[in-house]
Write a structure and sequence with these properties.
The protein is of the alpha/beta class. The chain folds into two domains: 7-127 and 286-301, NAD(P)-binding Rossmann-like Domain (Rossmann fold, 3-Layer(aba) Sandwich), CATH 3.40.50; 129-282 and 320-335, Dihydrodipicolinate Reductase, domain 2, CATH 3.30.360. The chain has nine helices and 17 strands. Helix 1 packs across helix 8 (284-298).
Amino acid sequence: MNGARPVRLGVLGCASIARRRTLPAVSRVPELELAAVASRYRARAEAFGAEFGCRAVAGYQRLIERADIDAVYVPLPTGLHHTWVDRALRAGKHVLAEKPLTDDHAATARLAGLARERGLLLRENFAFLHHAQHRAVRELVTAGEIGEVRSCRAVFGIPPRPADDVRYRRELGGGALLDVGVYPLRAAQLLLSGPLEVAGARLRVDRTSGVDIGGSALLATVSGLTAQVEFGFDRHYRGAYELWGSEGRIVVERAYTAPADLAPSVRVERPGGVRHLDLAADDQFRNVAAAFARDVLTGARVDDTAAAGGINAADAMVRQAALVAAVRHAAQIRTLA
């Protein structure tokens, strides 16, 4: 990668996550050059461009068609991902898209296949996988710190959003399962070895918006390991997971949204007592941006972060989408009064 030209990145949309987390991280990665940002509204694109020192483009298609863009970042609402990721891939651009990649298993599989056919990189931005605290957890488990893993519990919940928030718009891929539920589902796949099946699930649907605002699921492997996941944007904030083993337990708080300046602490419980493994702060958004640039420049198609376990990235995306679809299929919808 030494001497290689930076990957010229274009951004589709002026989303909050892009402004707060992703683009500041991109600016700290020498292998990435933020080249342009697009919006449906020129004034918004110009304001964004002025803030981050890049060109402003009116319209997503115009940005995709630019010859001076190598890759695009897609922080649009989930319901728009399939359309614009598809167009970007067909225009020969590598893609980093916010999670989930799409709101449909078949659509995710089609995009993964299209990227493979075109020889392009397609990544789903589960930034938390790139945080060092999860590598530390895997090392503890491998070392036998809690014996044999029996089960895990993963939760992610946030307080209610304003009534006009995009999360409450069903046609744009809103709902708690796709917004926050995907995190504990992805964590369960990270923590338990072997494919997961859905043993049961529930979703609570708000009558006014028509979207699910909370839910839970019980997952299991063929070997009998289980995972309980809970999620929602109708509760006090918590984003955590725990692993329960034959000889102890590991608990991780701030598992998905750790700020770059937070020094995390992993709680390890054993019969002899409790200890806290204090870790250095880590910037998961910078890490994921750097990994994306590296993989574009080297042509890598495997997610080789220690946390992700060295798996094919396309397979991971499709497997995640299948699990989300299975949760929705298994859920008995409970509509609120």
